[in-house]
Every structure is written in structure tokens, then in C-alpha cells.
Amino acid sequence: IKGLTTSITALNALETSLRQDASFHLNQRGATQQDAQGRWQFEYQLTRKVSDEHVL
């Protein structure tokens, strides 16, 4: 996931939500930087979790 936000608080809420999502693992967080317009650029790498119910 890559994106921009004007609120670091919103970015922290997004990360918390991603960590709690039962469908994905949050593998790593890319660099977070503020651009010339004051927006926060962010990047997260996610991997879909494998459900145990599909294992034979």
C-alpha cells in the first residue's frame, strides 16, 4: 500500500488497523517522509494470511 496523508495521526491509525487485520500480515513499513506540500508519503508491504481451515 502506498499513499499520501496530511495527518500523521491518521497514518498511525492506519498502521494500527493493518496490524489488527485478520486477513493480512504487515511485513514491513517503508520509509515515511513529508513532502514539500506537507503531506506524509507512506508505504506498507502486506502478505495475505493463510487460513488453517484450508490445510489438509
UniProtKB/TrEMBL annotation:
The lineage of its organism: Bacteria, Pseudomonadati, Pseudomonadota, Gammaproteobacteria, Enterobacterales. This is DNA utilization protein HofN. It comes from Escherichia coli. It comes from the Bacteria.
